[in-house]
Amino acid sequence: MSRLSRPSLCVFGLAALLTAGTAWARTEPAAPAPRAVVVGMNRDYPPYEFLDASGAPAGYNVDLTRAIAEVTGMTVRFRSGNWAEIRSALMAGEIDILQGISASPERDRQLDFAQPHAIVHHAIFARADTPPVDSLEALRGKKVIVFAGGILDDTLTARGFGEDLIRAPTPKEALRLLAAGRGDYVALALLPGTYLSRELGLNTVSPVANNVAAASYGYAVKAGNTELLARFEEGMTILKKTGRYKDIRARWLGVLEPPGISREFVIRFLTFLVLPLVLVLGGTVLWSRSLKKLVTERTQSLAREVVERKRSEEQLRLHQQQLVQADKMAALGVLASGIAHEINNPNGFILLNLPTLKAAFHDASEVLDAHQREVDPHFKLAGIPYARMREELPRMLDEVLAGGKRIKRIVEDLKDFARREDAPRLEPTDLNVVARAAVRLVEARIQKATRRFGLELGDELPRVRGNPQRIEQVIVNLLLNACEALPGSDQAVLLRTREEPGRGTVVLEVEDEGVGIRPENLLRLTEPFFTTKRESGGTGLGLSVSAGIVKEHGGKLEFVSRPGQGTVARLTLPALPQAELWETLA
């Protein structure tokens, strides 16, 4: 009994070790799964993309996307909806890429397109009792049904057909409306129209013009998402080289495309005519292909080198401009400090001597008053009757004293504005105080630009954490831009501040009644060196630097404008919590 127990114990021990090892392996943390790419698709656009009878994504685009995901190692998740929904979801960032959309110059402003994987041909469909037409222009004056938001909707609307268009939410609904007599014609892509006509059994509906327009069709992302677009283009290249793209296209689109030459005809042609020529020219063809491949590879390599060289030259040019502008700004700061010092010295004499002059006149006025009473009631002082000078001279001295103080204040503001701080200290800051200083600094420019300047500062604003000089630089830039936008001095400029308690922020707005900003320029205002005032000396750095300063302070700089109606520049900064403010002051 004891001799058998030892092997049994060994077996049980080994089993326990294996069980423990398996349990340990199960407790190892799994690597995080990669984020799935959300692909937007139209749920009703067969044969390109649609939901099948079970509600699953299907179609040419779907198979193409799945194949690309497989060869590139991506994980994809389809999100279906009507065309308007998925377009809006893409722009809102809820969808990463659209797998099928026709390209156009208007869409190119908001989207980046991949190389097209298909060309969509569009046709005109009509009932059997409707006279045929041969072009889109021939539809003018007719009731035309289009797929809402589709490329033909955009095209016909741009040509002025808007009043005669009947917009259907889906291609299927468009064909149903035509069959029911709700319109004269349907302008639709040929393959979806043919596919749906067969599916719905619309025997009275058929294409009367097969190729009235053509559009490139493929993947698109929201402008700027070029990295994801490049991954899909890479996958498409792999599919084309391996032949899978051809198989997918033939499976979904081949059955609807016009039939090609029969296999029997090809064999007969090769046997009797082409085969002898192939034997003679085979070596030449092989050599030509090899040479063409080498030329193509070299051309692509040279093209890449040219692109890289242009990119490097452009970056070098921008860096050089930045260095030159930075050197100018540094020199301006030194010059401003020197000028401020030179102005302060004589202005100090004015401020120092004026109180003494005023006191001297006050003391001398008793003697002068006695002289007027007893000797000469009409004597003059500096060529002006003393009776008038007795009233005017104190006021003149007060005005000179106030002017000297104003010069001192402007110089101090200029020195603060020009002071350079590589690592500015952030401190509790009163935005109203900074706004007043900025207005004083450019007061002369404001008075020259407009007679209607307004300053509306909110009461008891909470402090913000910031650097007063940096924030003042932003406000000065906004005020100068507002002044330069005014076509005449009758238009107004308004600077106002307010608190947004529900959001914990403080807002400063500079509103002008100027010429406004065109929509295509509005999104580029803070780009370095972008300016619409190059001829008048604009550098394009003012708002770019301002945007960087605002970002350092955790705030936002936004612009709202309509051409001809003025612009509102909005600076939003986080308010400093009261508890944190007391800690800072303590």
What is the CA-atom radius of gyration, in angstroms?
Answer: 39 Å
By secondary-structure content and strand pairing, the structural class works out as: alpha+beta
- The first-to-last residue Cα distance is 84 Å
The counted number of beta strands is 21
What is the helical fraction, as a range of percent? 40-55%
Q: What amount of the residues lies in strands?
A: 15-25%
Which spans have pLDDT < 50 for at least 5 consecutive residues? Answer: 1-27, 258-262
The helix tally amounts to 16
Shape: elongated
Largest sheet: 9 strands, mixed
Quote the average pLDDT. Answer: 84
Q: Describe it for me?
A:
This protein is of the alpha+beta class and 586 residues long. The longest helix has 112 residues. Helix 5 packs across helix 6, helix 11 packs across helix 13 and helix 13 packs antiparallel against helix 15. The N terminus is likely disordered. It is elongated and about 140 Å long. The N and C termini lie far apart (84 Å). Strands 1, 5, 6, 7, 8, 9, 10, 11 and 12 form a nine-stranded mixed β-sheet that branches. Strands 16-18-19-21-20 form a five-stranded mixed β-sheet. Strands 2-3-4 form a three-stranded antiparallel β-sheet, covered by helices on one side.
